[in-house]
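Duplicate of #3305? Posting structure anyway:
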């Protein structure tokens, strides 16, 4: 496994995938590709509308303000991944990163195909039952639809959401 994709969302939970990816990369002289997916302004607006629907007196959603939110998230994601890649490289492992916009599972799968990834190491939020049914699972979707090996890291005790 020479080309390893690790999706990160900025959370400590997602970062639990990193030690496993680093072990694989070290063992096979591989490279780690870090990706962070930011929702588009339209996705944020839709989510805001859905959460506010049924509430009287809620002002209409301003997509231009959502664009500003997305730009701030993009800046933060770039800084975060730059630092994460720097730490990996300090351990003698090659690392690259990129930030993309869209729906997380679809973007992760697309990135894996474009980069000819050999395997994905991803953390799971550890939801089961109704939580998984309601919220879905990016990891489940990546496993089902990526067509490449996926190592799913379960959250350590106390971190599941």
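Output from current build:
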């Amino acid at each position: 496994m020479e080309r390893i994709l690790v999706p990160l969302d900025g959370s400590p939970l997602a970062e639990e995938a990193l030690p496993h990816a680093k072990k694989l990369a070290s063992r096979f002289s591989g490279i780690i590709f870090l990706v962070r997916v930011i929702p588009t302004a339209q996705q944020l607006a839709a989510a805001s509308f859905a959460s506010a629907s049924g509430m009287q007196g809620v002002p209409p959603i301003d997509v231009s303000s959502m664009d500003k939110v997305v730009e701030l998230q993009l800046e933060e994601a770039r800084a975060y991944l730059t630092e994460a890649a720097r730490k990996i490289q300090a351990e003698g492992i090659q690392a690259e990163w990129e930030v993309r916009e869209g729906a997380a599972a679809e973007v992760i799968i697309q990135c894996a195909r474009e980069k000819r990834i050999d395997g994905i190491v991803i953390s799971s939020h550890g939801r089961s039952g109704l939580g998984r049914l309601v919220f879905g699972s990016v990891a489940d979707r990546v496993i089902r639809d990526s067509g490449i090996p996926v190592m799913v890291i379960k959250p350590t005790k106390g971190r599941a959401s």
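Confirmed duplicate; merging threads. Strands lie at 3-7, 31-38, 94-101, 119-123, 150-153. The longest helix spans residues 63-90.
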